[in-house]
Amino acid sequence: MSSILCIDLDNTLIYSYRHPLSGRKRCVEIYHGREISFLTEKTYQLLLKMKQLVRIIPVTTRTVEQYERVALGIGPLPYALVCNGGVLLADGRQDAAWYERSLELVEDCRGELERAVRYLELEDNRIFEIRLINGLFVFTKCRFPQQTVQSMVKKLQLLHTDVFCNGEKVYVVPKALNKGMAVQRFREYIAAEQVLAAGDSLFDIPMLEQADIAVAPYGCAWTEHTLPGHIRVMPREGVFSEFLLEYLLEYLLE
Description:
Number of strands: 15
Radius of gyration: 18 Å
Distance between the termini: 13 Å
Strand content: 25-35%
Strand order of the largest sheet: 5-1-13-14-15
Largest sheet: 5 strands, parallel
Number of helices: 8
Structural class: alpha/beta
Low-confidence stretches: none
């Protein structure tokens, strides 16, 4: 059976220096000379086993530049979905046809994205520049992100876009540009028979719902959502990346 593992990166597979990790770990990302992201040694060993059984497809909201900073150390991964699935990297190169289709999918959202940018330009709560990522979605950072999100939803009456916060980061993302849509498109692109998935945030819910088997950590973004039965929720204790890979490996080897 042709299987793929669509997996989020940050706080699912890799962890920033701010996240305490016990035991041995490997640096997987250096930025301005600083080690900023890590894999546990156990996660690394499990990834090597997983790579023998399925194609591993990182699915991340990171930009191309941010994704390319990450080196998992398990050899090349032929595909990655970045910019929340709006950009497909195939052997490290951007697939032009995929990107053009992504732009078509968000065309109806142009006005809402522009209104969001204008709002954020006047937002006193903002602590970072406003970025329109590849013409696909809006990103910035705010001192009180939840407050900004609530205000934007009320004032802008966004119909075709969603507003999220993840830590201090604030995103305005077209509803057609979600990880679930990306996984659905990629499944057809590669003719995959089975999709496994794992993720930890609101961005990941559509991807988890599209998968045949999926894994999520306890708590996090799921408190207001009823997750389908094919999504296994892992316990709070321990390292999520290790739990999810052990669970999916056991499933694949049954």
